[in-house]
């Protein structure tokens, strides 16, 4: 389980993010101030830090230096401002990414997962039954044979791999993939795309074991997880 240091002085936002990240399988430790965050980095290690730029006792930029001194972990800045100077400052310091509030939860999760993959904290190769997925190379194989997926089919598959223990609702899938093919995806066409994906990755599409349907709830990855 990846550990995330969340540095955010707004208690409501922090509570919401802690629940969101916890549902995605992350372990979250919250600090409301720069001082609390520095103390935490001296006590334990983290896999990634989410840092608000504006803190009550100093800027997130100063905290960035302390976090990097304690361990070379990815840092994503959270900011309520879209001021270009702040963004450039953070990126020039070496921050892995930034995201402007208010942000879509799924976008934040995707950015966290991307930063973890780049840092080597999250495996780039997965195996689910007879299916092998190398996200670093964008290669999908079944029983050692290449499987050719469309952009939307591949994104659908990544949604499940990136949330291996979660139940994925149809609304969430629509939110994640609607623009992957450069066209609008509605509920009916989503059913078609899931059917096509299953035909390519499942040993028996009529009895899917990789993308499992939970009636009335959504879908989940077969057996609840993907292994490295």
Automatic annotation (TrEMBL):
The modification 4-aspartylphosphate is found at residue 52. GO terms for biological process: regulation of DNA-templated transcription. Residues 123-223 bind DNA. One of its GO terms (molecular function) is transcription cis-regulatory region binding. InterPro entries: CheY-like_superfamily, OmpR/PhoB-type_DNA-bd, Sig_transdc_resp-reg_receiver, WalR-like, WH-like_DNA-bd_sf. Residues 123-223 form the OmpR/PhoB-type domain. Residues 3-116 form the Response regulatory domain. One of its GO terms (cellular component) is protein-DNA complex. This is Stage 0 sporulation protein A homolog. It comes from Eubacterium aggregans.
């Amino acid at each position: 389980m990846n550990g995330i240091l969340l540095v955010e002085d707004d208690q409501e936002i922090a509570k919401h993010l802690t629940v969101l990240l916890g549902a995605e399988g992350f372990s979250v430790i919250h600090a409301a101030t720069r001082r609390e965050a520095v103390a935490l980095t001296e006590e334990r290690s983290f896999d990634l830090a989410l840092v608000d730029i504006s803190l009550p006792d100093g800027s997130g930029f100063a905290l960035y230096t302390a976090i990097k001194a304690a361990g070379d972990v990815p840092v994503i800045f959270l900011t309520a401002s879209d001021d270009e100077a702040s963004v450039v400052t953070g990126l020039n310091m070496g921050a892995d990414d930034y995201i402007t509030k208010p942000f879509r939860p799924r976008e934040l999760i995707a950015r966290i997962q991307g930063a973890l993959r780049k840092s080597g904290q999250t495996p780039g190769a997965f195996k689910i039954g007879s299916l092998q997925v190398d996200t670093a190379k964008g290669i999908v194989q079944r029983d050692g044979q290449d499987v050719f997926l469309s952009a939307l089919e591949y994104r659908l598959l990544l949604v499940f791999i990136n949330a291996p223990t979660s139940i994925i609702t149809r609304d969430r899938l629509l939110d994640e993939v609607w623009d992957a093919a450069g066209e609008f995806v509605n509920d009916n066409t989503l059913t078609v795309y899931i059917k096509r994906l299953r035909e390519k990755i499942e040993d028996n599409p009529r009895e899917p074991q990789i993308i499992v349907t939970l009636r009335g709830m959504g879908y989940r990855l077969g057996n609840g997880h993907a292994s490295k």
